[in-house]
Design brief:
Layout: E1 6-11, H1 19-26, E2 32-35, E3 44-48, E4 51-55, E5 68-71, E6 76-77, H2 79-91, E7 101-104, E8 108-109, H3 112-122, H4 135-144, H5 150-154, H6 168-182, E9 186-188, H7 190-199, E10 204-207, H8 232-238, E11 245-253, E12 256-258, H9 271-279, E13 292-294, E14 296-297, H10 298-308, E15 312-316, E16 326-334, E17 337-344, H11 354-367, E18 373-375, E19 383-385
Parallel strand pairs: 1-10, 1-11, 2-5, 2-10, 5-7, 6-8, 7-9, 11-15, 14-16, 15-18
Antiparallel strand pairs: 3-4, 12-13, 16-17, 18-19
Helix pairs in contact: 2-6, 3-4
The structure holds inosinic acid (IMP).
Length: about 400
């Protein structure tokens, strides 16, 4: 008998590919959405009835009425950010928020100390352009085996020593209060929960944060985040075995962006890059920082498709490039230099414009697979399925 499998959605570039909107779009097919890595460094933006909702920790399924949302063991959770996010959703009218969240007892908890460490490191010559959410220091503690396990702190089994160091001292009361509120949520062994739900035939999708090129192993180290953002991270971040992974949806923008430091081969440090930033509203959803913008990068896209085992390819923000007279695609690295292929621009009615179809066909020929969906705006209905 064939086993019911979990699907995965990952970003194929440096994050900010618009994964939130795509999970939300795909969500009507799923009972459960599970995050497997990262923390409040992520910013997933969803528009529901023209209302903008930005999620940092809670999976994007929360805006659908019945979907269950799991924060998996591979995550690092900031209790203050989580409680604020729950309140923001309740204030926005989202129903039954608390009862639709399940937190892994093996996720790690971010302490004010982690944020302080992040800021210290960023002020030194080891800066990577971190979001300052304490992500790196929390994962460091996890691997040093001195981290704060959610199951233990929320059950009161372990207590944290008081600190007189500022700014830890001034934020510790709100942290303790958030821990107290968090302990009223559903905390459990989510790997058993997810495998059992798969056995019952429930449809589950794992939602990646950041992008493949920020993966701690496969990204442009050291300018990476501290977790496994690629589809392999699902197995260790949710406790689901490799033979239970089904489809892998890979999301990429029609161009590239990157926030923070690190290599960006196709970056445009000119007015074209600025135009893309302005039209694509390319400012960080978490930090508000302007994103670096550049042309689509085929070698990196091919690499990401390979590492993630992408089965379904989704191109987003195609509309941002509409109206440009000409544009380029970065291809074939040679002696460290990219070769740029010129493409003719397309009009706003992109699906009726041959130039847009040529752009899609060029990508398909280069990466050796079809682009299954194209998204052309922030709303749920602004997406077209090209191939099943
Ligand atoms: P950290 O994850 O905050 O430690 O940041 C490490 C690097 O990953 C920095 O370059 C960040 O800008 C980048 N980064 C972290 N989270 C995101 C995200 O959600 N989108 C895009 N870049 C991110």
């Amino acid at each position: 008998m064939s086993q019911n499998k979990m699907d995965v959605l990952v970003g194929l570039q440096w994050g900010d590919e618009g994964k939130g909107k795509i999970v939300d779009f795909l969500c009507s097919d799923y009972d459960i959405v599970a995050r497997y890595q990262g923390g409040a460094n992520a910013g997933h933006t969803i528009y529901v009835d023209n209302k903008k909702i930005v999620l940092h920790l809670i999976p994007s399924g929360i805006v659908r009425e019945k979907t269950i949302n799991v924060l998996g063991s591979g995550m690092v959770i900031d209790p203050i950010a989580l409680i604020e996010e729950i309140k923001m959703l309740e204030d926005a009218g989202v129903k039954n928020v608390k009862s639709r969240i399940i937190i892994s007892d093996k996720a790690h908890i971010i302490h004010p100390y982690h944020k302080l460490e992040d800021a210290k490191r960023e002020s030194e010559n080891t800066a990577v352009g971190s979001t300052l959410k304490g992500i790196g220091p929390a994962y460091t503690d996890k691997y040093k085996r001195v981290g704060i396990l959610s199951g233990k702190i929320l059950s009161g089994e372990i207590k944290i020593e008081e600190s007189n160091e500022e700014p830890i001292k001034s934020s510790i009361e709100s942290w303790k209060d958030a821990i107290k509120q968090m302990s009223n949520l559903r905390i459990e062994n989510t790997e058993v929960f997810l495998n059992n739900e798969l056995d019952k035939g429930k449809k589950i999708i794992a939602e990646g944060a950041q992008g493949a090129l920020l993966d701690i192993s496969f990204g442009s180290y050291p300018y990476v985040t501290s977790s496994h953002t690629t589809s392999g991270g699902v197995c260790v971040g949710l406790g689901v075995a490799p033979n239970r992974i089904g489809k892998v949806f890979g999301v990429f923008k029609a161009y590239c962006t990157r926030v923070g430091l690190g290599p960006f081969p196709t970056e445009l440090n000119n007015e074209v890059g600025e135009e893309i930033r302005r039209k694509g509203k390319e400012y960080g959803a978490t930090t508000g920082r302007p994103r670096r913008c550049g042309w689509l990068d085929i070698p990196n896209l091919k690499y990401s498709i390979m590492i993630n085992g992408v089965t379904d390819l989704i191109m987003v923000k195609a509309d941002v490039l509409s109206g440009m007279e000409s544009l380029y695609i970065g291809k074939d690295e040679k002696d460290g230099k990219y070769n740029y292929v010129p493409m003719n621009g397309w009009k706003n009615t992109l699906f009726e414009d041959d130039n847009f179809i040529k752009y899609v066909n060029f990508i398909e020929a280069e990466v050796g697979r079809k682009v299954n969906y194209v998204s052309f705006g922030p709303n749920r209905d602004e997406i077209v399925k090209l191939y099943i």
